[in-house]
Fold N-methyl-D-aspartate receptor NMDAR2C subunit.
Amino acid sequence: MTADTFLARHADGWHQAWAGLGAQPPAALLPRLCAAYAEPHRHYHTLQHLNECLTLLAEHCGQAAHPHEVALALWFHDAVYDVQAADNEARSADWARDALQAAGVAAAEAGRVHALVMVTCHGRPEAAPPMDADTRLLLDIDLAILGAPAGRYAEYERQIRAEYAHVPAAVFEPRRRQLMAGFLARTPLYRTAALRARREAQARINLAGALR
């Protein structure tokens, strides 16, 4: 997905999310974010993924207590992505919080956006947040790819492997199976009724196939 196509779909939503928090973003921030998602080492964590997340949010935003905060958390959740680093979520969350506070957003709202970005540390201790409505929705949206149609899911698996092309198969494959098995063991996998109805059954098919 090109930046122009992405912005044609989502630039209005970007400004609406900021306006919902009573602020205006710096003019340079949106181009910086788009450039980050277009970094050459990315294959899955790209504008395609962000587009899928924001599209799902638009369909389910009525489930959020603070939809503008969820939107901005999604915009920033993969803003920093270095496959050899362990602090991507923390750096992305810090970027979001600092940008919001610099634009005059209240510390409490900026802090909630920071916390929402941090819950995307899937499978790590810092990813055990209290399950309020916003957290459930954001996590389900971020993991919606697991329940994508088979063709898109297969593309996702190829994209993840490309991002970790530097990791030998003997190391990558056991770790990947462990992560997928962890997702498959969750009952339910999706925490919101709407995403569960739409994605749960296909996610279990996809994950079982991946493990085979």
About this structure: DSSP finds ten helices and no strands in the chain. Residues 64 and 134 are 5 Å apart (CA to CA). The radius of gyration is 17 Å.
